[in-house]
């Protein structure tokens, strides 16, 4: 049973009603097909209306959905022969980030991503997908290896943020993130970053400096969580809904702000409704993205990466 | 009686009496934020806003910082006219920026440029925490990236003094992206052999500590500066534990291997000058 979100309750209710009528038809041998057909038409309209007009806060709920597909789900669907490798060689292995190599359309690639758990037990093991410095350093180790062996890098972004903990600070959370930004800037292989769930601030960005940045339709990418923004702006985290709109955190907003390259569509109702379909949508964009990047020389790649980031921001000149 | 007298005398010996304070024009006196002793502002300024009693480093405004480091009349400002837009059409943002522009006399929270330190040319950026708490938006990212790029083109070092509460929330993801923009500029500069020195001053946190502040060839900090990624309150809420008083201070970061050196402001120019000398191009002999 899928977890039902507030905004989709009318759809679920109507679906239940239809199912009920169908059962009744079957059990009682009374023909209700006309009524059913009317309700199904109404359902189609309702679905188009609700799913076609998702508000930023609805998308936040979808991005955080407990059953939303994770990095490992996509690795399983999109790649072959994935081998996961562990550890940063400095301190430990952070399971909030997975990394390894795999074939994508018969070509070796390095795949790295934040990894949430799907239940409490796994979430504890993976620290709810919130990395410590060793996670970022593991990621960097793999990126450097990808560079050595000329493998493109694909990063999946899905985190509430870098873990705000004591040990994380002691081991240099800031430095680990900063180092990744700087080293990713200079990688001599194509880097593609895809936000699949929540893109939470610096902890997301530390896997997010690339040649092309894509976002799933219902994913979010933000400098601060809507709750955090609300508590700073309006001294009340209950205004999170409003903050989700003001902060412009959806794929559509960020495309307009020229921060991302592509919006990857999701199946009706969100990625968790149909993993195969979602993987297919993702595959299409990923393949095109890779193809377009493979044609560039290292110099071109680096120059374009600089040009890409150089233009992000808005300012004016006075006097 | 005597004891009272001496006690009083002692208490007021080095600091002006209440009456004297009332008689002097406002702003003449300054209370140390560390030990709360009261000094003549001029005395504190002469000591570069470092308390002569307890060594507390008071925040310096951008241009005061430049005065403490650069040879007289050598500093030339870059991109002074850049000012912020309102990319998210964020309610009240422009007014807040205007207010801080009036308050500080700056167009934004960072001053960039170049000058000489003991005759040695260097590019420079200094953040001012009195402007929107030093938060980083598009203008700060752009000015720093341009300064680093200028340093690369001119083949001179780049020194930055950071002071920031983190990202500029009102610019949303554009502010986050300034972390990557500056990091790429620094990477290009570093690849060209450029020397970068980062000096973290109070406070250097969030997106600034997690980007350019932490990737200098040398990372320094002023004594007592707050340096860290996540805020103390958030960490305490997360781990449900009270953090030690010295958590995220410069000294804490030094102890945990995150800094090369904690440098007293009174020795800063000397240390930077020596480092510039060590890295002069075309021969490193003393
Ligand atoms: Zn003092």
From TrEMBL, chain A:
Annotated pathway: Lipid metabolism; malonyl-CoA biosynthesis; malonyl-CoA from acetyl-CoA: step 1/1
InterPro entries: Acetyl_CoA_COase_a_su, ClpP/crotonase-like_dom_sf, COA_CT_C
Subcellular localization(s) per the UniProt record: Cytoplasm
Keywords noted in UniProt: ATP-binding, Cytoplasm, Fatty acid biosynthesis, Fatty acid metabolism, Lipid biosynthesis, Lipid metabolism, Nucleotide-binding, Transferase
Entry coiled-coil feature ranges: none
Sequence ranges assigned to domain CoA carboxyltransferase C-terminal in this UniProt record: 38-292
GO biological process: fatty acid biosynthetic process; malonyl-CoA biosynthetic process
The UniProt record lists the keyword Ligase: no
GO molecular function per UniProt: acetyl-CoA carboxylase activity; ATP binding; carboxyl- or carbamoyltransferase activity
Keyword Lipid metabolism: yes
Gene Ontology CC annotations of this record: acetyl-CoA carboxylase complex
HAMAP family xrefs: AcetylCoA_CT_alpha
Quaternary structure (record): Acetyl-CoA carboxylase is a heterohexamer composed of biotin carboxyl carrier protein (AccB), biotin carboxylase (AccC) and two subunits each of ACCase subunit alpha (AccA) and ACCase subunit beta (AccD).
Protein name, UniProt field: Acetyl-coenzyme A carboxylase carboxyl transferase subunit alpha
Species this chain originates from: Virgibacillus massiliensis
Source lineage: Bacteria, Bacillati, Bacillota, Bacilli, Bacillales
From TrEMBL, chain B:
Top-rank taxon: Bacteria
Keywords of this entry: ATP-binding, Cytoplasm, Fatty acid biosynthesis, Fatty acid metabolism, Lipid biosynthesis, Lipid metabolism, Metal-binding, Nucleotide-binding, Transferase, Zinc, Zinc-finger
Catalytic activity, as annotated: N(6)-carboxybiotinyl-L-lysyl-[protein] + acetyl-CoA = N(6)-biotinyl-L-lysyl-[protein] + malonyl-CoA
Protein residues bound to Zn(2+): 32, 35, 51, 54
Cofactor note: Binds 1 zinc ion per subunit.
Signal peptide: none
Keyword DNA repair set for record: no
Pfam family, one: Carboxyl_trans
Positions annotated as zinc finger (C4-type): 32-54
An annotated Gene Ontology molecular function: carboxyl- or carbamoyltransferase activity
This enzyme's EC code(s): 2.1.3.15
UniProt keyword Chaperone, yes or no: no
Entry cofactors: Zn(2+)
Enzyme superclass (EC): transferase
Biochemical pathway: Lipid metabolism; malonyl-CoA biosynthesis; malonyl-CoA from acetyl-CoA: step 1/1
Residue ranges of domain CoA carboxyltransferase N-terminal in the record: 28-286
Function: Component of the acetyl coenzyme A carboxylase (ACC) complex. Biotin carboxylase (BC) catalyzes the carboxylation of biotin on its carrier protein (BCCP) and then the CO(2) group is transferred by the transcarboxylase to acetyl-CoA to form malonyl-CoA.
Family recorded in the similarity comment: Belongs to the AccD/PCCB family.
Protein name: Acetyl-coenzyme A carboxylase carboxyl transferase subunit beta
Organism: Virgibacillus massiliensis
Gene: accD
